[in-house]
Amino acid sequence: MTLVQTSREIFADARAMHASALERLAAGDIRDAAEKAWCATKRATEALLLAVNGEIPPTTVGVSGGLRGLGRESDTARSLQERFGFNARYLHHDCFYNGHCEPLEDTERLIRETAQYVEDAEALAGM
What is the pLDDT of residues 17-70, one digit of tens each? Predict the structure, then answer.
């Protein structure tokens, strides 16, 4: 399996996680939806780093650092870096772990906007 094939599979997983997030959102489970959207964000970032750098860092801190490195080279990567950090803090930490998902309109918007994050990461990866 080539790195491109693997990156594509990880991007497909990110899209599937986002679809699951939207299903959970429709079912009224905002916390699970937020966590699935965060997972889609992280998986898309891992796929991007694999496509560009040839490897996936083993920790979330490493993934964040890899994205920070790309952010020094491109405005698109810098935008992803900012959104990655925001999604980690708000969707993963605040909403999922701490149950602070208010205002709901903002949380729902962030969950939906995860699709654009995945698309932007795919474009930057050249896929």
Answer: 999 999 999 999 999 999 999 999 999 999 999 999 999 999 999 999 999 999
Q: Tell me the pLDDT tens digit for each residue of 4-31.
A: 679 999 999 999 999 999 999 999 999 9
Gap between the Cα atoms of 59 and 126, Å rounded: 24
Residue with tokens 């909403």: 95
User: Counting beta carbons within 10 angstroms of the beta carbon of residue 80, is it exposed (0 to 12), middle (13 to 18) or buried (19 or more)?
Assistant: buried
Residue 3 has pLDDT above 70, yes or no: no
DSSP 8-class letter at 73: T
Long-range contacts, 107-111 (Cβ 8 Å, 24+): 107/30, 107/34, 108/25, 108/30, 110/34, 110/37, 110/86, 111/21, 111/22, 111/25, 111/33, 111/34, 111/37
Between CA 67 and CA 5 the distance in angstroms is: 20
CA distance 70 to 122: 14
